[in-house]
Structure formats: C-alpha cells, structure tokens
Amino acid sequence: MKYKTFLVVLALAVIAATLGAACGPAATPTPAPAKAITFGVILVGPYNDHGWSEAHYTAGQYVEQKLPGAKMIWLDKLNAADRKGVTLDSVVADMSSKGAKLIFTTSDDFVQDTRTAAEKYKDITFINISGDDVMTGKAPKNEGNYMGKMEYGKMIAGCAAAMTTQTGKLAYLGPLINDETRRLASSAYLGARYCWTNYRGKPAADLKFDVKWIGFWFNIPGVTLDPTKVANDFITAGADVLISGIDTTEALVVAGQQAKQGKKVWAIPYDFKDACKEAPEVCLGVPYFNWGPGYLKIVKAFAAGTWKQEWEWAGPDWKDINNPDTSAVGFVAGPALTGDAKTKTDAFIKGLANGSIDLFKGPLNFQDGTVYLKDGEKAVWEKNVWYFPQLLQGMTGPSK
Fold it and tell me: What was the pLDDT predicted at 34?
C-alpha cells in the first residue's frame, strides 16, 4: 500500500514539474500603476528668486520626487508689473485645461482672487498660502489655507543679529504692511531683544530696531521703494545687521558689497534655504520656509480623495528644525555666524524648542503704548499673533 501511495505521489510530482516547465517561473505580481495627479502652482514672483517663490517652486519639485505619478504645472511672476493683463482667473482656466484639479496660490496678494476662483471653479480645489479664509468662514468648500510659523524663524534671526551687532543698531527691510509682516518684524525684534538682554547683558533701551517698508514683496521699479537704496541707507545710518523681510536678496547683496569696501556689516536673508549663497561671507543665516512636506501631505490626501478643508499654521519640527521631510520652518546658520554668537543662537533655539523661552508673553505693549499682553499673559497665537495691528514698543518705523 505504501508503495502504491509513493507511485501516486511521484506521478503527481512529475506532472507538476512538467506543467511548471511549460508555464515558466511564477510571475511576479505587477504593481498597480501610480495614480496620475496634476497640480498647479501659481507664483507671485520669479521661480528662481532665491526667496519666497523659489521655495514654493522647489516644494512642487519635492512632491514630484516623492509621489509617483504627480506632475506640477506652474506659472511665475503673476503680478501687475510682470504680467500686465494676466489674471489669476485666466491662469486657473489654463491650468484646468491641462488637467490640474488642485491648485496652490502662493501669496497673500492672491487671497481675494483665490476665493473668487474657488466660487467659480467648483471642480477645482484651491490651497491659498498665507490666507485665512477658512478660519474666518469666508472660504468656499473647495478652498483651504496653509502657512508656516515663520515667527520662530524670525525670532532666531533676531537673536543671531543681536549676538553679532557691534553698533546695537539693527535694520529690518520690510515688504508691504499688514498683519503678517507686522508680526514677523515684531518676532525678529523680540528675538533680538531677548538675546541682547539675556545673553549679552545689555539694556533693552540700547538696542535700536528700525523698520522700513518698500511697499510690496519685492522691487517693482516705479511702484515700490528701491530695496537696494533702502539697504544702503540703513548702513549709512549706522545699522550693521540687515534683516530682510522681502522675498528677494537685496539686503544680503548690499551687505556683501559694503563689506568688500571695508564696512563691518552682516545680513540675514529670508524665505529660501540656500539664500546665503549670494554673499556667504556676511550671511548670519536664513530663516526659511520648507513647503515640501505640507504640499506633499495635501497632494496625497487630494489624490486619495481624503482631502478636508482646513486652515493649518504649521510649526517647526523641534526635534530637527532643518529636517527636509518634517519641518515646515527652519533656520540655517550662515558662515558669518561664528563663535559665541553661534553658541548663544543655538542655545536660544533649544529654549524655543523646550518651551523655556516664550517671547509672546506679557508684559508687552504696542508701539503707541497700548497694552498688547498683560504681565504674565500668554498670547493665543490664532488670536493675538496672527492678527497684529501694530509693531511693538521699542521698534521704530510705521505700523500703517
């Protein structure tokens, strides 16, 4: 009986082997093709401005690299000076015809037009960067908002400036005046004042922090003040550290030029991680937006059909503020930030990370002397920081 069973098993094995040889090796399962997703990115400035717009363009490339099947279509320089007669509506229509059903509009300047477009193109989802339509209830159901908490980056920039200055005179080159720009300039001042008084042991009154606004996010000849001239005027007036709040690198370029003429001056650019390359010898560092992770999360959710409308104000990853895959905001120390200034700036970052340093805490007054935060009162960021009606007491320059 055992012999017959053996013969049966042997016969089955031979049959199986024969069939296997005929059919070839077992086929490896073919992975499902990546779902194609086309998304649009509309930039207010040049895609290669080494600032705000380039940071968004780079984020789109990041999504393409991280998400198979994702494709970015983009248009830059959508502003009245560079593209006269071109509207956001016409750009949206063009991108829609090319398959984009998700569009990022990347400027505070696009808030109203994004809302109008969302009401018109109900089959397209819009993400406006830096607006707050969702929080205020003005947003149609197909519009979301996203922003990074650059206030922390500006605090760090202010600290680096205060630790470096030899004159005690800091200058802030601002764009236009609104809640966002006032709170960012004020954040830089708070960081500077903290490090000036706590690390250098100097009276707050001895720190000068002057703000000048050019009128837009970048230079528009004949419309804005010339940022190159403003930066030079700052240095002539005695400022030795220029902190930039505009989208482009004029402050850094001017500081580099002045340093070559023998002036002891430094600068801190803004927005783009690699901005220091313009003049590394005077660059103390750059607070920058890292839009990639936020973009990727949104595009993935949209592709999966799980996107939900939200207003998100994303902070740094305090475990590593320069992690390219997790941190919405970072600060890269520049070659000119050295010695004790670098050590104390690093200590300041750690204090922000562990919560031992909280700069939006009273007593703080606005520029006109009215109370901003009472003694011991902590700001509610969505209320007291996002909306910022004036510069702070201790700063010079217009609030309106």
Answer: 57
* Structural domain 150-288+331-396, CATH architecture: 3-Layer(aba) Sandwich (3.40)
Place of tokens 């809640």: 179
Q: Distance between CA atoms of 215 and 176, rounded to whole angstroms?
A: 4
pTM: 0.90
Give the Cα separation of 122 and 129 in Å (integer): 19
Compute the C-alpha angle 233/234/240, nearest 5°: 135
Residue 51 has a CB neighbour count (10 Å cut-off) of: 25
Query: Which of 312, 385, 378 has the alpha carbon at shortest distance from 135?
Result: 312
How far apart, in whole angstroms, are the C-alpha atoms of residue 272 and residue 309? 27
Strands 266-268 and 241-244, bridge-based pairing:
parallel
**Tell me: the pLDDT tens digits for 194-206?**
999 999 999 999 9
In whole angstroms, give the CA distance from residue 1 to residue 351.
82
Domain boundaries, the chain: 37-148+292-314, 150-288+331-396
- Alpha-helical segments (H) within 125-266: 133-136, 150-164, 179-198, 227-236, 250-260
d(CA 272, CA 45): 13
Q: Which of 221, 280, 219, 277 is nearest to 248 (CA)?
A: 219
Contact 272, 51 (CB under 8 A): yes
Could you tell me the CA-to-CA distances from 170 to 222, 268, 365 in Å, in that order? 27, 11, 20
Q: Are 72 and 40 in contact (CB under 8 A)?
A: yes
For the cut 50, the answer to whether the pLDDT of residue 15 exceeds it is: no
Give tens-digit pLDDT for 341-384: 999 999 999 999 999 999 999 999 999 999 999 999 999 999 99
Q: In this structure, are residues 251 and 242 in contact, taking their beta carbons and an 8 Å threshold?
A: yes
pLDDT of residue 177: 97
Residues 184 and 163: their CA atoms lie apart, in Å, by: 19
- Is 150-288+331-396 the same fold as 37-148+292-314? yes
Q: How far apart are CA 14 and CA 164, in angstroms?
A: 83
Q: Which residue has the higher pLDDT, 213 or 28?
A: 213
Domain 37-148+292-314 has CATH 3.40.50.150: no
Task: Give me the residues paired with residue 396 across strands.
Answer: 210
The label of the residue with tokens 């109203």 reads 112
Q: Which two tokens stand for residue 204?
A: 């707050």
